[in-house]
């Protein structure tokens, strides 16, 4: 019988197809095209697709934004208490995303000064120092959102919507905010900041008696005035109104809202908050999807940043293979492999760097890893190792850098103990968990400490890792534009406040599963976001 020599219909395995689609955002592009045509319902579908592609110009994070039209241009809102410097944050976020900054208050003032219909309706309420009705404010904001520059570039709203009715009105008009951030600061800190503000009417410049004091000249000091809206009574009244409404507004955006609490405020530290906002809003441009993917993930960070915990959770959730230098060495020592390594290395359980590299490459090329995908922990540890992986054909498609400060890493590792009976890890950091605090005093509790977790040795390991991020960035890079092949993404693995940190710590001293789910869905199930830089 003649042998069938007909070539297969596909020359590449499915896993490569998934990797190609993921790398080129094919599922996202097709999803957006289908959404657009279903909403617009054009008579000529083919022509619509062609024009749609021409408008996008290959960049599907910058296509036209239309009322009642799905879009992936920025549609953000930043909410927070009065006098919390939201304007600075919103303007910077807008600039980073090439979007339009919109302040409802400034729109109201402009409408009144121009004397248009909305301004004429709003003016009596402003003169009586009353709240402008929601219907008028919504009409003013919607009119701005229909302008061509906003439709093509997207927007960042500051302090809007303020009420549930305003939020519902936006939704009824087809304005779907892709991301809403609520910034919270204790009332007393807000009052302290607002009541310290002073205005120089001569140059219209605002100073703060504590954080940004005015020039020490007699004339300047005499000119300064305190606006009526900045008195303590006025600020507390505005805060009361804000607190009453913010919960109702938040309920309208449960699925795409993030809240950040700063117990000590952030005045004079706005750029730290801005960095976090840029990370959050960068994710907001891309929707979570569950399309076929081939996971080849790197997870790195300073010692004590939580790499093992994150990798193990990814393994449990997706069934991808957890690989690390430690695991491949243990696997080699416990197996009867044909690898020939010096006996002194095997006896000491320590292998040279080139041997570890060989073991890792061998593992990542195994059938198990190629079929199921993999997550590689704590490797590579230098630019040369990263390039060596690439030369071996090991090409990751995600790289998560766990961003944690040195002080937190030191605290985590030096307060770490092991239960000799079951190998569980416990921490003695105060207030993390009542049971953890009691553990050392319990009878029959056999806790031991790894010599590598001494303060001196941990500091040395942290010092050796000081430039690790920069080294790996040279090899893998950020995704700076839509055509960039960079894959490095930063994940905040610390927590933004003491309370949120305590609430999200598990018994091992790292983030609980809820955090892993958020970071996983925010980074793993979206296309790699373009990195925005503070201008």
From TrEMBL:
Keywords on record = Kinase, Nucleotide-binding, Transferase
Q: Which Pfam families match?
A: ADK (PF00406)
Q: Which GO terms describe its biological process?
A: nucleobase-containing compound metabolic process
- Keyword check for Cytoplasm: no
Q: Which domain of life is it from?
A: Eukaryota
Record bears the keyword Phosphoprotein? no
According to the UniProt entry, its GO molecular function terms are: ATP binding; nucleobase-containing compound kinase activity
**Which family does the entry's similarity section mention?**
Belongs to the adenylate kinase family.
From the Swiss-Prot or TrEMBL record, give the protein name.
Answer: Adenylate kinase
Record organism: Clydaea vesicula
């Amino acid at each position: 019988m003649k042998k069938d020599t007909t070539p297969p219909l596909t020359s590449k395995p499915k896993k490569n197809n998934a990797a190609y689609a993921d790398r080129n955002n094919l599922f996202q592009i097709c999803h957006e095209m289908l959404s657009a045509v279903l909403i617009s319902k054009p008579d000529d579908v083919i022509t619509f697709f062609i024009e749609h592609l021409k408008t996008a110009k290959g960049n599907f994070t910058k296509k036209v934004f239309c009322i009642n039209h799905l879009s992936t241009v920025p549609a953000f809102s930043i909410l927070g208490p009065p006098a919390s410097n939201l304007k600075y944050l919103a303007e910077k976020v807008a600039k980073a995303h090439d979007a339009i900054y919109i302040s409802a208050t400034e729109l109201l003032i402009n409408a009144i000064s121009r004397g248009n219909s909305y301004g004429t309706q709003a003016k009596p309420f402003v003169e009586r120092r009353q709240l402008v009705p929601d219907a008028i404010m919504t009409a003013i904001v919607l009119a701005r959102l229909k302008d061509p520059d906003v439709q093509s570039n997207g927007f960042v709203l500051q302090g809007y919507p303020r009420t549930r009715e305003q939020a519902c009105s936006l939704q009824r008009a087809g304005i779907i905010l892709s991301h809403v951030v609520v910034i919270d600061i204790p009332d007393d800190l807000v009052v302290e900041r607002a009541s310290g503000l002073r205005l120089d009417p001569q140059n219209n410049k605002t100073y703060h008696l504590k954080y940004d004091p005015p020039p020490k000249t007699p004339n300047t000091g005499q000119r300064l005035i305190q606006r009526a809206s900045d008195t303590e009574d006025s600020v507390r009244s505005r805060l009361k109104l804000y607190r009453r409404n913010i919960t109702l507004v938040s309920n309208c955006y449960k699925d795409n809202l993030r809240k950040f609490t700063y117990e000590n405020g952030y005045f004079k530290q706005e750029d730290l908050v801005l960095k976090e906002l840029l990370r959050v809003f960068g994710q907001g441009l891309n929707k979570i999807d569950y399309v076929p993917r081939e996971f080849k993930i790197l997870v790195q960070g300073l010692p004590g940043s939580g790499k093992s915990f994150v990798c193990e959770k990814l393994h449990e959730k997706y069934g991808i293979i957890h690989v690390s230098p430690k695991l491949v060495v243990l696997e080699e020592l416990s197996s009867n492999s044909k690898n020939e390594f010096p006996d002194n290395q095997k006896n000491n359980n320590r292998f040279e760097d080139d041997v570890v590299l060989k073991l890792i490459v061998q593992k990542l090329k195994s059938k198990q890893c190629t079929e199921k995908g993999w997550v590689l922990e704590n490797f590579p540890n230098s630019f040369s190792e990263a390039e060596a992986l690439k030369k071996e054909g090991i090409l990751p498609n995600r790289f998560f850098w766990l961003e944690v400060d040195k002080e937190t890493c030191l605290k985590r590792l030096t307060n770490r103990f092991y239960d000799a009976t079951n190998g569980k890890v416990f921490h003695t950091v105060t207030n993390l968990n009542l049971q953890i605090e009691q553990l050392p005093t319990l009878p029959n509790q056999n806790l031991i400490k790894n010599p590598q977790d001494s303060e001196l040795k941990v500091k040395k390991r942290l010092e050796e890792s000081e430039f690790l991020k920069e080294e790996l960035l040279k090899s893998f890079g950020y995704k700076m534009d839509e055509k960039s092949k960079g894959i490095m993404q930063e994940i905040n693995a610390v927590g933004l406040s003491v309370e949120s940190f305590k609430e999200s710590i598990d018994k091992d001293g790292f983030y609980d599963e809820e955090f892993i789910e958020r970071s996983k869905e925010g980074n793993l199930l979206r296309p790699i976001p373009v990195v925005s830089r503070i201008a």
